[in-house]
Amino acid sequence: MPSRAYDHVVFDLDGTLVDSRLDLAAAVDHVLEVLQLPVLPFETIYRFIGEGARRLVQRALGPAHEGRLDEALALFLAYYGQHLLDHTYPYPGVAETIAALHARGVILSVLSNKPEALSRALLAGLGLLTHFTAVIGGDSLPARKPDPSGLWRLSELTGTPPERLLLVGDSRIDLETARAAGVAFCGVAWGIRPDEVLAEGQRVIECPAQLIAVVERG
């Protein structure tokens, strides 16, 4: 078989593999209601997603209520853990593309700022977890994206040289992570903030199936 451009594809989770915006936003507003604070429009909360649960809740609380962050985060994690899959689903074509890459022998991993246990539970609930060799969440290592340690850890775990590894994501955080690790990057045109990637002039795929050609030919 001809050699491919990349042997290991690492995916961001929220906004790249799955659309989890409704469930995340509902969990945030649940916390605000419990704390008797004004709820936020979902569109506002969507802009807060991408840097982990703690940062999401912190942004929703605002500086005036940051002293309640630990209490709010505990409420968020408890509620969200029970409602991971109420309205969350893979983006169209994602499951088929993951299966096709897996069938070709490509190593697949997930690198998310969502806590690892929640990331695994979400992927398992959607029937996707078995395709992934490794899942690193925002609490798996001392630092999270855009720190490159997660990509370096995945490279080490799978014995994949950085030049044979591809990170796929929808945000500037993902792009900065790839750059910091010296790893190739591919953006997606869907997700939470693809405009950030487009603004950087990066390679962007319009649908998941196009990723197969990127992996095979670079």
Please characterize this protein's 3D structure.
The chain is α/β, with parallel strands linked by helices and 218 residues long. The chain folds into two domains: 8-19 and 88-217, HAD superfamily/HAD-like (Rossmann fold), CATH 3.40.50; 21-82. It is 44% helix and 13% strand. The strands form two sheets. Strands 5-4-1-6-7-8 form a six-stranded parallel beta sheet, with helices on both faces. A two-stranded antiparallel ribbon has the order 2-3. The longest helix is centred in the first third of the chain and has 14 residues, at 21-34.
Q: Describe the global form.
A: globular
Full CATH superfamily name of the largest domain: HAD superfamily/HAD-like
CATH topology descriptor of the largest domain: Rossmann fold
Determine the number of helices (DSSP H or I, runs of at least 4 residues): 10
Compute the number of strand runs. Answer: 8
Q: How many angstroms separate the termini?
A: 16 Å
- Tally of individual domains: 2
Pattern of helices and strands: EEHHHHEHEHEHEHEHEH
In the CATH hierarchy, what is the architecture of the largest domain at level 2? 3-Layer(aba) Sandwich
Text of the CATH class of the largest domain: Alpha Beta
Strand order of the largest sheet: 5-4-1-6-7-8
Rg over CA atoms, rounded to whole Å, is 17 Å
Average the pLDDT over all residues and give the rounded result. 95
Report the structural category: alpha/beta
